[in-house]
Specification:
single chain, mainly alpha, Preprotein translocase SecY subunit, 2 domains, three-stranded antiparallel beta sheet, globular
Amino acid sequence: MLEKVRVIFTIPELRRKIGLTIFLLAVFRIGSQIPLPMIDQLKLQEMFAQQGNGGVSDLLQQVSVFSASALNQITIFGLGIMPYISASIIFQLLGTVWKPLEELQKEGETGRKKINEYTRYATVALCIVQSYFYLATMAGVGEDGNSIVNQAFWTSSDPANLDKSLYWGWAIVAVAIMTCGTVFLMWLGEQIDEFGIGNGISLLIMAGILAQMPGALLELLYNAKPELTNFATGEIGIEHIVVLAVVFVAVITGVVFIMQGQRKIPMQSAKHVRGRRVYGGTRQFLPLRINQAGVMPIIFASSLLLFPQFVFQALGRYTNWAVFNSLAEVFARGQSFLYVACYIALIYFFCYFWTAITFNPKDVSENLKNFGSFIPGYRPGRRTEEYLEKVMVRITYVGAGFLALVAIIPTIVSAELGVSPQVASFYGGTGLLIAVSVAFDLVQKIDSHLVMRNYKGLIEG
């Protein structure tokens, strides 16, 4: 492996691409630590400490995982890349139901560029809306004048004499800065795509996830004891560290196995006789991924389940009815059987929903027919379409079960081994799936450069 790494940096073009990618990721991480002007960071930390877990804190933490952002820190990159991801998902969904956009997708490179242009415009609009409501919620001036915006900014500490024009001036500037921050991240991702290596947007998200790993590891080691302890006491001892290490390796192995798993459908190409030569007639395979939906079902399911707790907490606060507080506790993250059951059910639902959007058996059947290929034992056309749909339903069930297992592993690890949710989050869930899938994509991109120059790839023996 060390020899393969050495070979990577002996190729000038590959070395230059990797160096540029690392530099741009460093720019992203530096910008993620620059706060917005006039934000009192001490008050911001106190506010999140008072809220604890649940409600807005869980929502911001969940969104931060897959948006390459730090919503609990109001920085210039506070929104991360989430508006661009949202815009991309919106246009991908619209492409399946809106005829003009569907026709635009079929125009090839020209259509793709046009859709990317529309996506950028939608990203700017979403940035303005999201940053305004985010700042209005997190940094707005309340009736008591208690705001995380630095009080030295106001002309008076008396809430009745606050100059609202100064606040609105700051809000406009802050919204513009956060919007420009997201657009800049979008530009960084495109530069990595064009001049670096790997998928730029995915690498930004992975960098945001991996940046939390040192803090989680230090927290685990700080709370651990260099001795054997009783599992029932909740203390973290040597046996906990060993179990956590074994579980981490096992989970990573399982994630890699399923993410790379495929159901290969045998295909036969028709024979064509031209003159005295016979073309075609070869056997090939149509690979169908077991986890066709990727990480999207976990993202949708976990985000959707945050709202019931948030809504019930708000209703309980304003009505003082005990039933709403009880429902809020029921929907607390990983605290009840009902929450876990709803989580698994939503993952299965979104797995089938997202697979139905991204994989169209009818289109695949038509493409096979147009290229003169067929699946042995099934007539081209409707029979092939029905067969592909049946196979996809079955393997999606397995993929959804895997996603559900990976999604609840952090809850099990946190409850049974007594580690914090921040540490347990690296044993499953959205962050782990994103990190593994992006790492594999990066390795494949590097392998393509090595193989092109007659070197062995990183994952070859």
